[in-house]
Design goal:
mainly beta; 4-stranded antiparallel beta sheet; 30 strands; globular
């Protein structure tokens, strides 16, 4: 909320004829006070900007900005911890049925279900479906903007042939496979990458105000099953493969930044294979996450391994700087993974949280000082188990600052857990609350870049939003 107040330099009270000076109690988005070197047309403003007390004035303004920002952040975090949010079904992927009939036989499209989603530039989201379709929607406008139908393998169609074997399928879904798209990633307002059981990666771009999602082609020379996708803030696309290899795709800048520029040639893409040289055989990647502050990626593997990759070491023979397996005793897969962090007045601590195929969740603190590959990156003496276990595999994990972890399994519950990520006082993670009513088909939970909203599937054909920046009555 933007407010204003009156202010006057006490040392120049005799100049009050120039009128009051107005300042804004800025929110998070504008925290830079006006520069004293910038002159204005007002003599009174010139005198204050060049007065000996100008620095004091700006220091006071900065302190007020910090107070307002910290208050807003504290209120938001308190809402997350208390489960105080406005929750609603943002849209249904079947809402276009009345407008988009089969023109050949005038039959309505069959009922479809959401399978996997990702957040682009809020309020844009992309989601896949059980019928192999890709949708882009606006969760604030509560409507589907565009759809590409039947672009991936589906048991409801013969257009594609699956290459997903039963063992990998069991790792990914457990006992409840809802079919359709394996994963989807979104960058900005209009770029979507999706993966299906037929293998490879398909790229799409939304044409604004047209209800059209234009197919841009496939990632070249990638015929394996890709299990997971992740865009970073620069538009690089990280891919986890059934061959156990992490890949990074770099797009032409114009394609990312200009709305009406399409990908004319897929060969313009730069695909980097992140080197992975371990003594044991490489196991399929089931999940991945990226930390840009650490310049690291983390992958969860079917053999239970959690591998930490340094993105600065891509040109070397091995990018893996740490390996951890909390499931070695029970031989479970590492099904989902996320970075977590918690800041204090002194420093920011980092950790990796992994969910297993057996419903267990584990946290391990990592040492950023060892990210160059020197010393031990994973701090095994600070490994902690998050209780209680989920029923079935931990299908998806997400986190937000200050150590709050979101997890979901086949028990129909999105669980919130507070972790403390401290290497000095070993305070155990504590379950905070759960968001119930979801079905076993839930596959994705995502937090937007502002840390205000939790968005998920798991409600048949609807995408659900929990907005912690709003009261229930707003």
């Amino acid at each position: 909320m933007m407010m204003s107040r009156n202010g006057e330099d006490a040392s120049s009270a005799e100049n009050t004829s120039s009128g009051p000076i107005f300042y804004d109690d800025f929110g998070q988005d504008d925290c830079t006070p006006p520069s004293p070197s910038i002159s204005t047309s007002s003599p009174g403003v010139d005198m204050i900007a060049n007065s000996p007390d100008a620095d004091v004035l700006y220091q006071q303004l900065n302190r007020r900005i910090t107070q307002v920002t910290n208050f807003a952040r504290g209120r938001l975090l308190k809402n997350w911890r208390r489960g105080k949010a406005k929750s609603y079904a943002a849209f249904s992927i079947n809402e276009l049925q009345d407008d988009m009939k089969n023109r050949e036989n005038d039959l309505r499209l069959p009922f479809d279900w959401v399978r996997r989603l990702d957040i682009g530039e809020y309020p844009r989201v992309a989601c896949g479906s059980a019928h192999g379709s890709i949708f882009v929607a606006d969760v604030e406008a509560r409507q589907v903007l565009a759809v590409a139908r039947g672009v991936h393998y589906s048991r409801h169609s013969n257009d594609f042939k699956t290459i997903l074997d039963e063992k990998l399928q069991q790792y990914i879904y457990g006992d409840y496979d809802g079919g359709g798209v394996l994963d989807v990633g979104m960058f900005g307002k209009n770029i979507v990458a999706s993966v299906g059981r037929e293998g490879g990666v398909r790229l799409f771009k939304l044409v604004e105000n047209s209800n059209t999602l234009i197919y841009q082609g496939n990632i070249p020379e990638l015929s394996i099953v890709v299990t997971c996708t992740k865009f970073d803030s620069d538009g690089k696309l990280y891919l986890g493969g059934s061959d156990g290899i992490l890949r990074v795709v770099t797009f032409p800048p114009d394609f990312l930044n200009v709305d009406d520029v399409n990908l004319m040639n897929a060969q313009d893409l730069e695909v980097t294979v992140v080197p992975h040289s371990l003594d044991e055989p490489v196991s399929p990647i089931l999940s991945l996450d990226v930390s840009e502050s650490l310049d690291m990626a983390v992958t969860a593997h079917a053999n239970g391994n959690v591998c930490l990759h340094s993105m600065k070491k891509q040109s070397e023979r091995n990018s893996v700087i740490g390996v951890w397996n909390p499931f070695a005793k029970n031989k479970s897969c590492a099904r989902s993974v996320t970075f977590a962090s918690r800041a204090t007045n002194v420093e920011t601590k980092y950790a990796v949280v992994v969910g297993g195929g057996n419903g267990e969740m584990w946290l391990n603190i990592i040492d950023p000082d060892s990210k160059k590959g020197e010393g031990v990156v994973f701090k095994d003496e600070f490994v902690q188990k998050l209780e209680p276990d989920h029923i079935g595999p931990v299908i998806s994990l997400a986190s937000r600052p200050q150590g709050l972890i979101m997890s979901v399994g086949h028990d129909g519950m999105i669980r919130m857990t507070q972790t403390w990520i401290s290497g000095k006082i070993k305070k155990m993670p504590s379950p905070v609350y759960g968001l119930g009513g979801y079905k076993v088909w839930i596959g994705s939970i995502c937090v937007d870049d502002e840390g205000k909203r939790l968005i998920s599937d798991g409600m048949d054909d609807a995408v659900v939003v929990h907005d912690f920046s709003l009261d229930k009555n707003e």
